[in-house]
Amino acid sequence: MSGKFVVGYDGSEASIRALDFAVDRAKNQGGSVLIAHVLEWSPYSFLTPKELEERHKRRGEELARAEEAIIDPVKKRLSQSGIGVETKIKYGHIANTLCDICKESGAVQIVVGRDGDGGLGTRIFGSVASSLVQTAPVPCTVVP
Length: 144
Fold this sequence. Notes:
Strand 1, helix 1 and strand 2 (32-39) form a beta-alpha-beta unit. It is built from five helices and five strands, in the order βαβαβαβααβ. It is globular, with a radius of gyration of 16 Å. It has a single domain (4-143), classed as HUPs (Rossmann fold), CATH 3.40.50.620. It starts with a strand and ends with a strand. Helix 3 (94-105) packs across helix 5. 51% of the residues lie in helices and 21% in strands. The protein has helices at residues 13-29, 49-78, 94-105, 120-125, 128-135; strands spanning 4-8, 32-39, 84-91, 109-113, 140-143. The protein has a five-stranded parallel sheet with strand order 3-2-1-4-5, sandwiched between helices. The protein has 144 residues and is α/β, with parallel strands linked by helices. The model is unreliable at 120-125 (pLDDT under 50).
C-alpha cells in the first residue's frame, strides 16, 4: 500500500519520533510524507484596522520563523531519504487543521508523537493526539 503520510511536526522529540516512524513506513510502502506544522492562532476579531494590520504583519513573521527554524532543517535532514517530502505550515486549531490537511492532501494516514505529559491541563482540555484519534478522517498513529 502506497500513499501519503501526514506528520504533525513541531520540532519536539515526540514529533521527531513520529516523523521517523512515518518516513520508515513511507520507505517500506513506496509512499511519501507531508510534514505539517500548525501554528495556533486565535480567531479574535474585535480589533481596530491598525491592530489588524499589525496582527497580519506578526502572522507573516511567525510563518517565516517557523519555515526557517522548524521546516527548513527537517527538509534538509530528509533530502537524501529517497521518499517524496512535502511541507505545509498553517494557522488554526492543531487537531482540526491536521484533519483538514489530511483531507486536502488525500493522505492515507496521520502520524503524531505523544510527549507523555499527562498533566492537569491535558486532562481538562485534552491533547492533540487524543483529539485526532477521535476525529481524524484517516487512520491515526500515535507514536510514544
